[in-house]
């Protein structure tokens, strides 16, 4: 399917446009995919005439919608002539390859991608680069060989540590826990899980916590709900679940909220305040974390412009202006941090609207 919407003003308007664009189905191209765009089309690369395309892990994910709202604002403010969003409806490893190839054909100047698999996208990204495109990874990194830089929400280890601190507090530092992740190949999820496992092994504060299972809801609401249900059946002594994905935590909360485990089995992880609000209010969830997703897309767009203009190459120490968010520096490994994360609970959740 092909979705198109016109340009937007302001981040909230962009988000609204993304949300309503599903109604504007203009033509069908099959393959379970969609594209959205704004502004004029352009294939040339002079500074005022550059194009940027965002390829998220999957469309149909409320988190992605917020990220892309920020991305479209950033693209406009940074001075791109047009911005597009294309991507698969599922987050499987190779689902993004055909979209990358299409952007190479079009001569898109900057591709911003959240990789469903660090290596499956590699050959296609190499071709895009050979044709002159700059590659910005965001949200979920590619293998570093295939991109110019990676815009990361928060340092990956810190994302892991926050979630462990939260679950430990919520289960009194003791008992069985499980992780309900997105897809088994997602770079960001796997890095966070690796740091959590290392910390559980090495930190004496967590000596009495046992990670008994890792399951994958594939960022699909129904599958995540079923995986949550399955965990409670398989592990009757389970004390807590960490879900480092907005889709997983919302589905798990929905399951717990009407089950006998509500208020007894703790749930934390990374969630959107707007999705989690009812579950915080009804006592299913005490506290969870996230950064501002719109900032991720916003910074990625400015990074793409600085690369396309030749102002930076993505080397450690490079700096660029990211509009209202100010100067950003490329750190070790070509990583630009956005942060900081916020913890949401009954006291502050009404202060946030994303
Ligand atoms: C999900 C996705 C995304 C992740 C967020 C927190 O929507 O898996 O990649 O960063 O949650």
Task: Describe how the helices and strands are arranged.
Layout: E1 2-3, H1 11-21, E2 25-27, E3 33-39, E4 51-55, H2 62-78, E5 82-88, H3 97-106, E6 110-113, H4 122-130, E7 134-138, E8 149-152, H5 156-170, E9 175-181, H6 187-202, E10 209-216, H7 221-234, E11 238-243, H8 246-257, E12 266-269, H9 273-281, E13 288-290, H10 293-308, E14 319-321, E15 327-329, E16 335-337, E17 342-344
Parallel strand pairs: 4-5, 4-6, 6-7, 7-8, 8-16, 9-10, 9-11, 11-12
Antiparallel strand pairs: 1-2, 3-5, 13-17, 14-15
Helix pairs in contact: 1-2, 2-10, 3-4, 5-6, 7-8
Alpha-L-rhamnopyranose (RAM) binds near residues 61, 140, 188, 219 and 247.
How do you describe this structure in short?
With 354 residues, this protein is α/β, with parallel strands linked by helices. It has 10 helices and 17 strands.
Order of helices and strands: EHEEEHEHEHEEHEHEHEHEHEHEEEE
Number of helices: 10
Mean pLDDT, to the nearest integer, reads 90
Count every beta strand, where a strand is a DSSP E run of 2 or more residues: 17
Query: Which strand order does the major sheet show?
Result: 3-5-4-6-7-8-16
How much of the residues is beta strand, in percent?
15-25%
- How far apart are the termini? 27 Å
Low-confidence stretches: 1-32, 39-44
Task: Say which molecules are bound, naming each kind only once.
Answer: alpha-L-rhamnopyranose
> How many strands, which pairing sense, and closed or not: the largest β-sheet?
7 strands, mixed
Secondary structure category: alpha/beta
Portion of residues within helices: 25-40%
Shape: elongated
What Rg do the Cα atoms give?
A: 20 Å
Protein name: Rhamnose ABC transporter substrate-binding protein
InterPro entries: Bact_Solute-Bind_Prot2, Peripla_BP_I, RhaS, SBP_2_dom
Signal peptide: 1-33
Keywords: Signal
């Amino acid at each position: 399917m092909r979705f198109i919407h016109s340009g937007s003003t302001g981040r909230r308007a962009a988000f609204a446009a993304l949300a309503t664009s599903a109604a504007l189905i203009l033509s069908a191209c099959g393959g379970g995919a969609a594209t959205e765009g704004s502004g004029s089309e352009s294939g040339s690369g002079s500074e005022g005439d550059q194009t940027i395309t965002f390829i998220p892990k999957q469309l149909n994910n409320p988190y992605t919608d917020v990220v892309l709202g920020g991305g479209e604002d950033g693209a406009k403010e940074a001075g791109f002539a047009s911005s597009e969003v294309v991507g698969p409806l599922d987050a499987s490893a190779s689902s993004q390859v055909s979209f990358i190839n299409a952007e190479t054909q079009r001569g898109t100047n900057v591709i911003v991608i959240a990789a469903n698999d660090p290596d499956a996208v590699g050959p296609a990204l190499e071709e895009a680069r050979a044709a002159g495109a700059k590659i910005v990874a965001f949200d979920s990194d590619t293998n570093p060989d295939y991109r110019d830089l990676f815009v990361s929400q928060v340092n990956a280890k810190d994302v892991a540590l926050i979630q462990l601190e939260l679950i430990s507090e919520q289960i009194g530092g003791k008992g069985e826990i499980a992780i309900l992740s997105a897809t088994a190949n997602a770079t960001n999820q796997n890095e966070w899980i690796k740091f959590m496992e290392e910390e559980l092994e090495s930190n004496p504060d967590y000596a009495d916590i046992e990670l008994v299972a890792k399951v994958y809801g594939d960022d699909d609401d129904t599958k995540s709900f079923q995986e949550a249900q399955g965990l409670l059946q398989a592990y009757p002594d389970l004390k807590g679940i960490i879900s480092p994905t907005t889709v997983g935590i919302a589905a798990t909360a929905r399951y717990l909220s009407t089950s006998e485990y509500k208020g007894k089995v703790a749930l934390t992880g990374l969630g959107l305040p707007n999705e989690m609000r009812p579950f915080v209010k009804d006592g299913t969830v005490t506290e969870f974390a996230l950064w501002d997703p719109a900032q991720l897309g916003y910074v990625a767009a400015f990074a793409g412009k600085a690369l396309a203009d030749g102002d930076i190459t993505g080397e450690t120490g490079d700096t660029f202006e990211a509009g209202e968010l100010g100067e950003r520096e490329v750190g070790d490994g070509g990583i630009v941090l956005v942060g900081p994360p916020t913890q949401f609970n009954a006291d502050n959740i009404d202060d946030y609207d994303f």
